[in-house]
Write a structure and sequence with these properties.
binds pantoate, nucleotide-binding, ATP binding, 20% strand, single chain, Pantoate_ligase, 3-stranded antiparallel beta sheet, Rossmann fold
């Protein structure tokens, strides 16, 4: 496994692979890798001859006062995990490589970014769209793999790739959960033992929503209200949003249509903000 830190070296590597007709699979990450990330690597290995993982904590997707400084990092362990899983290249640029002086370009999507995560974190998706564009231009992948856990992000990345004519495929892979249902996330590391069990309320709310669907409930406002009441019973939890949306464009809906709806949740457990979702 090779670690590349420089942009020109990454691009030259990508060009060589493309010239030799090798398919490049790309897994963009902010490090502190867990099984969720590694499942993307496994999927990339199944579909591509060369697998590149990027490890870069992108400052522009964190607003002032968010957790950029305390975002968990363990580069040495990340490298070990990548090596064990058969990654070929870890692209780990420094800030001055991704944002050299004179940098003044932002990629902004107008619609899909405007609510849900976009309301709670207004500048977040500009940062994500900008860095993902830059990473695609560095790694030149044939397929890029994203986790469904960041559902809105995956939709935005698909739109961005289409809108900007990127010659690549975006593959979205299923959420990986811990034993009792908590969706894997680097931010789970912030949770105390008590908070960890309180955090299970997200998954329990998803299970409750699935039961409601099985019972034939379709009134979106009523389902959202019942889920809000359910989560509110957990003392450590504070709901930011619980929303049922059209899964292909995140538009608001009044009636739940099976196979076309996504349930999205953002809940604070103590100081930690967690997100989860389920296709219904
Ligand atoms: O999902 C993430 O870890 C990040 O948002 C991404 C896609 C690596 C961009 O920094």
């Amino acid at each position: 496994m090779r670690v590349i830190k420089k942009l020109a070296e990454m691009q030259a590597f990508a060009d060589e692979q493309r010239c030799s007709k090798k398919k490049i699979g790309f897994v963009p990450t902010m490090g502190f890798l867990h099984e969720g990330h590694l499942s993307l690597v496994d999927q990339a290995k199944k579909k591509c001859e060369v697998v590149v993982v990027s490890i870069y904590v992108n400052p522009t997707q964190f607003a002032l006062g968010e957790d950029l400084d305390r975002y968990p990092r363990d580069f040495k362990k990340d490298l070990e995990l990548c090596e064990q899983r058969g990654v070929d290249i870890v692209f780990a640029p420094d800030n001055d490589v991704m944002y050299p002086s004179g940098f003044e370009t932002t990629i902004h999507l107008n619609k899909t970014t405007s609510d849900l995560e976009g309301s709670s974190r207004p500048s977040h998706f500009d940062g994500v769209a900008t860095i993902v564009t830059k990473l695609f231009n560095a790694v030149k992948p044939h397929i890029a793999f994203f986790g469904q856990k960041d559902f809105q992000q995956s939709l935005i990345v698909k739109r961005l790739a289409k809108n900007l004519n990127f010659d690549l495929k975006i593959e979205v892979c299923p959420i990986v959960r811990e034993k009792h249902g908590l969706a894997m996330s680097s931010r789970n590391n912030y949770l105390s033992t008590g908070e960890r069990s309180a955090a299970l309320v997200l998954h329990k709310a998803i299970e409750l929503a699935k039961e409601m669907v099985e019972q034939g409930k379709i009134d979106v406002a009523a389902i959202e209200k019942e889920l809000n009441n359910f989560v509110a019973k957990e003392k450590l939890a504070k709901v930011e949003y619980i929303a049922l949306r059209n899964r292909s464009n995140l538009n608001k809906i009044k009636v739940l249509k099976k196979g076309k709806t996504v349930l999205l949740l953002a809940v604070r457990i103590g100081k930690t903000r967690l997100i989860d979702n389920e296709l219904l």
